[in-house]
Give the backbone structure.
Amino acid sequence: MITIPTAQSVQLSLTLIQASLPATTRLVVPIALWLAGFLCLLNIALAIFFRRNPPLEIVSYVLVVGIELVIFILALMANIGTLSRLPFYLPPSLPINQAEIVAALAIGIGLFPAAYWHRINVSELPKRIAEDGKTMKDREDSVHVRTGKPSEWMN
């Protein structure tokens, strides 16, 4: 006889699996899930926005999208309960668990291409700030604020 699980029994089993996970894992896995999804979309948007840049930059965005997609799928599987353990071993004496490592990797890998390709040199920063200040001052010279009643200058 074949029995089909009901939605209530599936929800109960998911609750039991999630209850067996440590409290920090139950908190970190959904954060890693949302973060990996957001960074995946961010890198897709950056690849589209900077599509005229060198091909190596576009390839790095696409490669990171693939890695973030794998992290997203792992976090999703851990969140819904089909994956109760992550596929790498850590000694039990460590103060962090696999979910926290995956969340940190998701942040680092997801933000790496944008930080690498659009970095600035710290020694150039004062020069760039001065240039921006000069540009803003030039714009202020060309803008004239009208004073007086609106009826004087409105048609």
